[in-house]
Amino acid sequence: MSATTEHIFLDKQHPAMWRALNGLGLKAREAADAAGIDRKTVELLYVRISQINGCAYCLDMHVRDAVESGETPQRLAVLAAWRDTALFTDKERAALALAENITELPGHPTQDHEEGYAREHLSADEFSVVSWLAITINAFNRVSITSHHPVRRDR
User: I want to staple 122 with a disulfide (CB 3.0 to 4.6 A). Which of 29, 60, 117, 127 is the partner?
Assistant: First the structure.
């Protein structure tokens, strides 16, 4: 690999910024706990956003974390089509809609519709926390995608 094609791991190149992003991620998870959003829902959001962004590294990590938190293989298998199944609660659906809205940033009419749906099922605190969770995993996805973080084979 030449110097112009060698991957630069952003987290290694600027570890202080990586630590700051990790700190934000930890604060978002603390806020989720305080708002009563369980780890399984947090991981569902992380997996869905990582699917949208195509982040293999984060998908590998957060699918494992979702399973560890009690998520089922069936729900993970259909997560990309969550709107077409009754396997998710109204609150999970609202959180997923909001997280997708923040990730995709559609036009204003769609944004308003999705935010309105989320507000019907999420408190102001839950809405804010889901927003911060989406913002942070989007940032992590972009760092991993830009850095070409590898997915290691299971041993």
Answer: 127
